[in-house]
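REVIEWER CHECKLIST
Item 1: Sequence provided? yes
Item 2: Single chain? yes
Item 3: Sequence as submitted:
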Amino acid sequence: MSKRTSISLAEVRAKLNGARGQDYWRSLDEVAQTPEFEEMLHREFPNAASEWDSTFSRRDFLRLAAASIALAGVAGCTKQRPKAILPYVHQPEALVPGKPMFYATAMSLDGYGTGVIVKNREGHPVKVDGNPEHPAVKRGSSIWMQASILDLYDPDRSQSITHFGEISDWGLFLGDLNELVREHEHDGGAGLRFVSETITSPTLVGQLEALLKKFPKARVYQFDPVCRDNVREGAKLAFGEYLEAHYRFEIASIVVSLESDFLYTHPERLRHTLEYTNGRRLAEGKREMNRLYVAESTPSVTGTMAEHRLPIASGKIHELAFEIARALEGNTESAKETSQWTRAVVADLKRNRGKSVVLAGEYQPPEVHAIAHWINQTLGNVGNTVSYSRSAAFQPANQIVALRDFAHELQEGRVQTVFVLGNNPVYSAPSDFDFSNSLAKVKRSIHIGLDYNETAAVCTWHIPQAHYLESWGDTRSFDGTGSLQQPLIAPLYGGRTIYEVLGAMQQQQPIRTDYEIVRDYWRSKKHWNDFEKSWRKGLHDGFVADTAEHPQQAKLRIKSLAELKPNTSNGASELETVFRPDPSIWDGRFANNGWLQECAKPISKIVWDNAVLVSAALAQRNGLENGDVVEVSVGRRTVHGPIWITPGQAENTLTLQLGYGRQRVGRVGAGVGFDAYQIRTSDALWFQTGAKLTKTGATHKLVTTQTHHNLNSPERQVYRSGTLAEFVANPEFVKQSVEEPRRDETLYDNVPYQGYKWAMSIDLTTCIGCNACLLACNVENNIPVVGKKQVEMHREMYWIRIDTYYKGPLENPSFNHQPVPCMHCEHAPCELVCPVAATVHDHEGLNLQVYNRCVGTRFCSNNCP
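Item 4: Structure as written out by the authors:
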């Protein structure tokens, strides 16, 4: 491979600073007009893209094929009954071969449930979408929801019970379980511990409460790598108790996000997205839309939607929030010192009292959350756009503080038995807790999980866990709504549920199934007058009506803003390291999912890797180019990773994405990326100043799809812009750019159509670039993954892609998402391959994106918001 042409960041910056008009760009190569970009631009499909790379080994092919071809023969791998069966004599009335059936169930991520509808063909699930009737979902989907179907059929899932690494069986485990129960009955559970993700399952809560009553000295610890400790502690600081804030974005005119990615990482992401984007739609007679301000250190999905975005170090957002609050308080001295961005925020908030939302992200310290609560109370937003309720989680607490106590117990030898219920603390816990060595010393450790992962490898017992599509269960959404979970297929690998393991520990004979445990719990609660009728309705709907938490009165205990004053000792030039969940594989639990590994990340479009995201200014100052491997040092801990220059990144911020560098994972995720958890500590979970960046001299090839198949040609005018006044005067202006090919340029017959033609319409006002439609198309059509090397050759097989266009300076451009949809749609051939998009800006920078309605009335079925 030839050496890549170096890019002069100074020349790139000069070009962008001098740009005028409709000048969109997609990458540094495009602005610099490198020979590599010119080569790509002259070909719709770049050089050798049609040829399969000869270096692609048989082993690599089989490794990736296992991840993506598992669904191809899924009809033949439906789990059958253990005894002989006969063909249909009378075909079931509801079953029509070739016609799918749909069932409601629930999926959990970080403990909180999301209602889903699952498509089932002849007994096997093939597609997962959001449940439009669920009050906490309403409509929409996420990449993790869509790709979860691949985890069900993953051949690398754990398939055997193991004891000290050797294959064992359920009977032997039950024998050991009975012995440990007898031991802990004598000491009251003094050495018994349970470690789990955030728990919201009502049935699981009931089981744990019963066990804690039986073993009063036992303790339950909850830990999520992407935890909400700062959110909870911020509410406690403001109100004296743990309360959860709920936002009504559909009636909010102004939204201010202090590093909150509420459209992508929040547990209520789907409802937030629907309500926020509804506020941007221009319905008949409506000529106003909401306005979003975002302050963040690294570009996020929410940040790309902002009309006014401020790149700022995470450690400086506390000062910014305090500055906004003081200006709202009427502090004239503060008003003189505020920035232009802050003055605009304050003015808009004052004009929209009771119609705004101010929220802080999980990454910010409790004081920032308390300031946000103070601002919402001061502006009269509480009771209108903001409300509060008790947490849906079991025993909400500061997870890091509790986990530190657990780590000390392990190190001091005070723990005899540990149950690890579904999570992976050896890999994802803060590095200063050293769980790997501590957990290995425990007499009995029982791990229940989908994979034989890093934690399973140091536990005495490992129990394969059934996938959520194989299990009976229940969960609660962020608002508290209870959802019932029903299986759509028998466990493919004989997996067990946490309910069954804890049920066996309760010594109830005979051992009950997960179905009996969940059903008996709901019967015991007497929630319904007619249990059988209501149980069937709950299963049909996927949720239990009227179970959400009720709004609570939240009285501020903050007497003065001075209580929340930030410490301003950190220097502006200090390097800051921030940690973020990967936008594709999250905290690492999806590392073996090929669809998510090959899903181009929303901003960088990197696949099959993570990177150290840096600003152009920092890269220029240190002589760095994309792919240069650097050493990032935080205290005595170091990690090595390639850098990626990111437009809109705060100047002195290094962003490390979690979830890669797995040591115990299947064949797809093995050897992919670097492990950022190695330098993540409990006292700096999300960001830390004082980092050191050292160039190692090595390089690593990062592959991105950002410039694949460029469609931004001036002749085609695929993406156009205009003023809001022009849009109001002529709302149909975007249609004027629809291409009409000459007769000799098309293979279609020149036949006049009667009635409607088929076409697809995408409202770019509401497209947040989340990739849910891309994953939905992959699932619907069982698109195979091809691997990093083939993506580099432009051989990725997306049938939908999301292009990202920048406009403006390198340090803080505006972001625009352009979906290129359904090249091979299952419904019909498209005459219009791609709708024409347009962007409209008002004089204040409001970003309004409209779409070409073409001549069709049919819309995509992937449930995008």
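Item 5: Key structural point noted by reviewer: The chain has 25 helices and 33 strands.
Item 6: Recommendation: ____
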